[in-house]
Amino acid sequence: MSRSLRSWPELWLERLLGRLPIGWLQLSHSRTRLYAALGGVSFASLLVLMQLGFHGALLGSVALPYRAMDAQLLISAADMNTLADASPLPRVRLLQAAAVPGVDQVSAVFLGRLDWRQPDGSVRALDVLGFDPSEAPLHDVEIRRQQGLLNLVDTVLMDARTRHIDAAPVLSAKPDATWLLELRARSLKVAGHFAIGGGFSADGYLLASDQTFLRLFPNRSSGAPNLGLVQLQAGADPAVVAALLRERFRDAGDVKVRSLDAVIAEDQRFQSTQRPIGLIFGFGIVIGLLVGVVIVYQVLSSDVADHLKEYATLKAIGYPQRFFLGIVFEEAVILGLLGFVPGLLIASGLYAVVAWKTGLPMAMNAPRAGAVLLGTVAMCALSGAIATRRLARANPAELF
């Protein structure tokens, strides 16, 4: 064939491989089979990327409220696994912690959840954080600027990113133009807003003073907050102070002291390995890989079967097994690379749609895309290795 009539992929692959790109020629010979194979690989990549995206959104939404906290260490009940199941702890532990060297301030935070029925009848779950407005347990600039308003009874700040609400009245709420919110037969005045965003269990957040919180949750006691946010003195070593606090509470055994990063990591690990939703996403990734392996194996296996006599002829005249392995792996890598691109583009678009509709922190990033690309190529290579088993067992004398 004239060199000028050969396609650019063929010329590029020939230069890269240093030989005729037999794998590419076999794939491109049947365009229908090639497009079907690429569709299968794209679907498998899309499936894995979506599952990873949902899993990443789960981990990201778990971290959101913790990242809003201004603390180096966190004191919680000993049985706390996630923020939602943080049991109340004795306030006296926070007072004891404040006396430990290196501790500057310990802020008590109350946690609760309320269902808010909107005028249209739909219900939104709101996580409520209550704290003393004279302290600064949250580092968001907008929250700190407005938290003095919480000193007024039944006044709250609302998360403007709460899922599926009309954000206009929340965004327009001001100290002199509050917006009324009915919760548990109480009229709360929304005097301002902030932005955190909902997760998989709640649609958004509400900030209140500890006094307003106790009015909303009359069964809760002021002597039993859920968290103690520990701020350290300048220059204090968090590891040293944490060790002192653990030693201080060693006999009591009813609280645990962890760094904020450790709390986030343990919460994310619990959500991923103990909660059904995390396990479902994990299984989804495995199923996506299995689907991809089966599809690519079927394509490569059929290709090997169709050309078995040609391979056997080459084998009879002395070509080694690694030559045939190279051809099949060449096909596998081409399918992996070309099939990944449509899957990535479609997944990126779906990420944007899901983030827009749900408010979940879901976005494509380079490490995730790179990991799935490597996984896709490895999946195709594995399929190719399985497909060549028949070729390795082929005896030229039995094929003619």
Tally of individual domains = 2
List low-pLDDT spans.
Answer: none
Distance between the termini: 29 Å
How many helices does DSSP assign? 14
The overall pLDDT, averaged over residues, is: 86
Helix/strand class: alpha+beta
Helix content: 40-55%
Radius of gyration from the alpha-carbon trace, in angstroms: 30 Å
- The gross shape turns out to be elongated
Strand order of the largest sheet: 5-6-4-7-3-2-8-1-9
What share of the residues does DSSP label as strand, in percent?
A: 15-25%
Count of distinct strands = 9
Pattern of helices and strands: HHHEHEEHEHEEEHEHEHHHHHH
Largest sheet report: 9 strands, mixed
Main location: membrane
Pfam families: FtsX (PF02687)
InterPro entries: ABC-4/HrtB_transporter, ABC3_permease_C, DevC
Transmembrane segments: 34-59, 277-300, 332-356, 368-387
What this model shows, in words?
It contains 14 helices and 9 strands. It is α+β, with helices and mostly antiparallel strands and 400 residues long. The protein has 2 domains: 8-61 and 277-398, no CATH class; 90-253, no CATH class. A 9-stranded mixed sheet has the order 5-6-4-7-3-2-8-1-9. Strand 2 and strand 3 form a beta hairpin. The longest helix has 38 residues, at 321-358. The protein is elongated and about 90 Å long. The model has no long low-confidence stretch (mean pLDDT 86). It is a multi-pass membrane protein. It comes from Kinneretia aquatilis. Keywords: Cell membrane, Membrane, Transmembrane, Transmembrane helix, Transport. InterPro entries: ABC-4/HrtB_transporter (IPR051125), ABC3_permease_C (IPR003838), DevC (IPR005891).
